């Protein structure tokens, strides 16, 4: 198995951290922009896109700040994806920092996917 490469992306979002947190941490919020539908039972989240389904385990959640998942297909691997809200102490600019992993030849495609996802999020919250 080829090792995946960790990458981080930062997106400035014009919204309050508490509003953003609702969109990154709840099934209803995630289904507004991340997937067609999201269900959760405890720490298991089911993401549904166009009839296909992926399950992820909630690894950590820090209220108002971050959420981290691991896809169940990668359950034994060290890979995860994290969505973190960061507020600049000086400018008060709010950013979303996405940390994810992808195969070396898929990093650019994965980054484009996240850029599109975050763009959808910005539209949903009126920050586009």
How is this fold's topology laid out?
Layout (H helix, E strand, L loop, with lengths): L4 E8 L4 H9 L1 H7 L3 E5 L2 E6 L2 E11 L3 E6 L9 E7 L6 E9 L4 H19 L3
Antiparallel strand pairs: 1-7, 2-3, 3-4, 4-5, 5-6, 6-7
Helix pairs in contact: 1-2
The CATH class name reads Alpha Beta
Which class best fits the helix and strand makeup?
Answer: alpha+beta
Shape: globular
The appropriate CATH architecture is 2-Layer Sandwich
DSSP helix count?
Answer: 3
Order of helices and strands: EHHEEEEEEH
Oligomer: single chain
Number of domains: 1
Major β-sheet annotation: 7 strands, antiparallel
CATH topology: Alpha-D-Glucose-1,6-Bisphosphate, Chain A, domain 4
Q: Note the gap between the termini.
A: 39 Å
- What is the CA-atom radius of gyration, in angstroms? 14 Å
Average pLDDT rating: 94
Structure description:
This protein has a seven-stranded antiparallel β-sheet with strand order 1-7-6-5-4-3-2. The chain contains three helices and seven strands. Strand 6 (81-87) and strand 7 (94-102) form a beta hairpin. Helix 1 crosses helix 2 (27-33). It has one domain (5-125): START domain (Alpha-D-Glucose-1,6-Bisphosphate, Chain A, domain 4, 2-Layer Sandwich), CATH 3.30.530. The chain has 128 residues and is of the alpha+beta class. It has helices spanning 17-25, 27-33, 107-125, and strands at residues 5-12, 37-41, 44-49, 52-62, 66-71, 81-87, 94-102.
């Amino acid at each position: 198995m080829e090792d995946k490469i960790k990458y981080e992306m930062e997106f400035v979002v014009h919204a309050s951290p508490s509003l953003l947190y609702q969109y990154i941490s709840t099934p209803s919020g995630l289904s507004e922009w991340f997937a067609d539908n999201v269900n959760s039972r405890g720490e298991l989240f089911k993401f549904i896109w166009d009839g296909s389904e992926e399950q992820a385990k909630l690894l950590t959640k820090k209220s108002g700040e971050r959420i981290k998942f691991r896809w169940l297909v990668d359950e034994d691997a060290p890979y995860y994806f994290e969505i973190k809200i960061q507020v600049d102490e000086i400018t008060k600019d709010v950013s979303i920092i996405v940390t994810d992993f992808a195969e070396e030849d898929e990093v650019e495609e994965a980054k484009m996917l996240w850029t599109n996802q975050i763009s959808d999020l910005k539209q949903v919250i009126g920050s586009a």
